[in-house]
Write a structure and sequence with these properties.
- It comes from Rhodanobacter ginsenosidimutans.
- This is PI3K/PI4K catalytic domain-containing protein.
- This protein is of the alpha+beta class and 268 residues long.
- The chain folds into two domains: 106 residues, Phosphorylase Kinase, domain 1 (2-Layer Sandwich); 153 residues, Phosphatidylinositol 3-/4-kinase, catalytic domain (Phosphatidylinositol 3-kinase Catalytic Subunit, Chain A, Domain 5, Orthogonal Bundle).
- Helix content is 43%, strand content 17%.
- The protein has ten helices and nine strands.
- The strands form two sheets. It has a six-stranded mixed sheet with strand order 1-5-6-4-3-2.
- A hairpin with a 4-residue loop joins strand 8 and strand 9.
- The protein is globular and about 55 Å long.
- The model has no long low-confidence stretch (mean pLDDT 96).
- The protein binds adenosine-5'-diphosphate (ADP) and magnesium ion.
- The site of adenosine-5'-diphosphate (ADP) has 19 residues, from strand 4.
Length: 268
């Protein structure tokens, strides 16, 4: 897998805004032409380059793909023509003076985020999500990759009935985000499972999480090259090699079979 980096000519057409827009005002849908010429309907967001967000989105997507954690089928980095986007939305100040800027881009998942629902239905939706084996694999992946912000707005329920992880922006929270001066209040699916599921359902959750964690070591071996390629693509060449080494070593250690039970707990 090589992450495609597409020029601004690949950003074809603005296609509106998501129903639940998070904090990032640049989030939008657009038609994007992949390197093979195929047109994809995509969700895009431009990410402040003073944060590790773009790198984390790309790493999260690639590692999730390698570990068979449900996530968008197609993803890339695409340069967005800033003047075109400006016609539709007020842009943040860090884009001032730029004619184009890289966006994280994923194929649209048909469905809604689990949080995107009227209040009275939310508790039912959340419970269904927490009972899904897809969610248990996402929960294990988030602990492995130290993703700090997996609330229900960052899980989509696809129209085919499965659950899909979106928004890997806060990956490597302790390694990259905290040293950069931004600390998130950690939100994890495993904690939601503990809080909102009964004892027996949570036992299943935890046991499935352990099974998923058992696949991380093999997945890590298969994605190491992708991780190195992504870091080399996104990060300044002076810092890329030591950073890639540090990330591979960090994720590698947390993918070892003994790491998960020692750090998250053993199944009853
Ligand atoms: N691949 C996608 N397909 C469809 N909708 C998406 C996709 N990615 C994000 N969204 C929608 O956009 C919202 C914001 O996206 P997200 O990546 O979570 O941005 P933020 O960083 O602002 O939280 C999500 O809650 C979801 O409703
Ligand atoms: Mg989000």
């Amino acid at each position: 897998m090589t992450l495609q980096v597409l020029p601004s000519s690949a950003w074809r057409e603005f296609r509106g805004f998501p129903g639940l827009r998070g904090l990032n005002q640049t989030s939008h849908f657009a038609l994007v032409e992949g390197s093979g010429g195929k047109l994809h309907k995509c969700f895009l967001k431009l990410i402040d380059p003073s944060t590790p967000g773009l790198l984390c989105e790309a790493l999260g997507w690639a590692v999730a793909q390698g570990a068979s954690v449900p996530t968008a089928e197609f993803a890339c980095i695409v340069f967005v023509p800033v003047d075109e986007l400006k016609k539709h939305v007020a842009l943040p100040s860090w884009l001032t003076g730029l004619s184009e800027a890289p966006a994280w881009c994923t194929e649209v998942i048909t469905g809604d985020s689990v949080a995107q629902v009227h209040k009275w239905l939310y508790a039912i939706r959340r419970k269904r999500c927490l009972n899904s084996i897809d969610t248990h694999a996402i929960a294990a992946f988030d602990v492995w990759s130290d993703n700090a912000d997996r609330h229900m707005g960052n899980v989509m329920r696809s129209s085919s009935g499965g659950y899909v992880a979106i928004d890997h922006e806060t990956l490597l929270h302790e390694m990259l985000w905290i040293p950069s001066g931004r600390r998130y209040t950690v939100q994890r699916l495993v904690d939601a499972g503990k809080t909102f599921l009964g004892k027996s359902a949570f036992k299943t959750f935890f046991s499935n999480m352990h099974d998923a964690a058992g696949t991380h070591n093999g997945a890590m071996k298969s994605v190491e090259k992708d991780i190195r390629d992504i870091v080399a693509t996104v990060v300044d060449p002076v810092h890329a090699l030591p950073l890639a080494n540090a990330i591979v070593s960090y994720l590698g250690a947390r993918s070892a079979p003994s790491w998960f039970p020692a750090n998250v707990g053993v199944t009853a």
